[in-house]
């Protein structure tokens, strides 16, 4: 059987356009899911709810994510991307070390003061629900948290190392003080 294609377009172009449209739909749905999960948690997400909220068919949403876990993982990825866009990417313009660390912290404070998501911090809303649930969603939430901490620690190490190389002997004590204040119970 031969399937007629659109005049003037080859099947590769049609397939690429469909994939692009699917990727855009997936991104739109995942971003809406982030907003819901920031308020109600990832457990409150359903394919049906997202379809209803966005005026889509449930089968269309299911085709994009397959399972609730697939939806949750896409939601976590979308939250990470929004966080990186708001906090990490702008800070990368600053030179590595103390200036970049300060930029990261400043952008993070702005993120906390003017939340990207209706419920505030996505990770604060979801990590407590998944901290004792083994599985891919927990693993991804934990990995993203660790990536953030590693980024901060890397810039802190760079700042301390540069300070030591420049002969600032108080640098180790200042780094310890900063970490102790950061980690001190409130």
Notable characteristics:
mainly alpha, Tetracycline Repressor, domain 2, 74% helix, disordered N terminus
How would you describe this protein?
The protein is mostly helical and 186 residues long. The chain has one domain: Tetracycline Repressor, domain 2, CATH 1.10.357.10. It contains eight helices and no strands. Helix 1 (11-40) packs across helix 4, helix 5 packs across helix 7 and helix 6 packs across helix 7. The N and C termini lie far apart (71 Å). Residues 1-7 have low confidence and may be disordered.
What is the 3D shape? Answer: elongated
Number of strands: 0
Strand content: under 5%
Identify the CATH architecture: Orthogonal Bundle
The CATH class label is Mainly Alpha
Question: Helix/strand/pairing class, anyone?
Answer: mainly alpha
Q: What value does the average pLDDT take?
A: 86
Q: How far apart are the termini?
A: 71 Å
Helix content: over 70%
Low-pLDDT segments, ≥5 res: 1-7
- Looking at the structure, the CATH topology is Tetracycline Repressor, domain 2
Query: CATH H-level name... which superfamily?
Result: Tetracycline Repressor, domain 2
Rg measurement, Å? 22 Å
* Number of helices, counting only DSSP H or I runs of 4 residues or more: 8
How many structural domains in the coordinates? 1
SSE string, helices as H and strands as E: HHHHHHHH
Task: State the major sheet.
Answer: none
């Amino acid at each position: 059987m031969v399937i007629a294609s659109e005049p003037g377009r080859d099947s590769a172009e049609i397939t690429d356009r469909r994939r692009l449209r699917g990727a855009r739909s997936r991104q739109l749905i995942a971003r809406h899911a982030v907003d819901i999960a920031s308020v109600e948690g990832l457990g409150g997400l359903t394919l049906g709810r997202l379809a209803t909220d966005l005026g889509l068919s449930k089968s269309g949403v299911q085709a994009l994510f397959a399972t609730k876990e697939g939806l949750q993982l896409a939601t976590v990825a979308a939250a990470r991307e929004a966080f990186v866009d708001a906090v990490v990417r702008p800070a990368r313009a600053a030179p590595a070390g103390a200036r970049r660390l300060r930029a990261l912290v400043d952008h993070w404070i702005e993120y906390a003061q003017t939340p990207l998501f209706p419920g505030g911090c996505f990770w604060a809303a979801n990590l407590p629900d998944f901290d004792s649930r083994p599985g891919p969603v927990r693993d991804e939430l934990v990995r993203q948290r660790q990536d953030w901490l590693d980024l901060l620690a890397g810039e802190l190490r760079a700042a301390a190392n540069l300070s030591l190389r420049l002969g600032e002997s108080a640098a180790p004590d200042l780094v310890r003080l900063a970490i102790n204040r950061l980690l001190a119970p409130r």
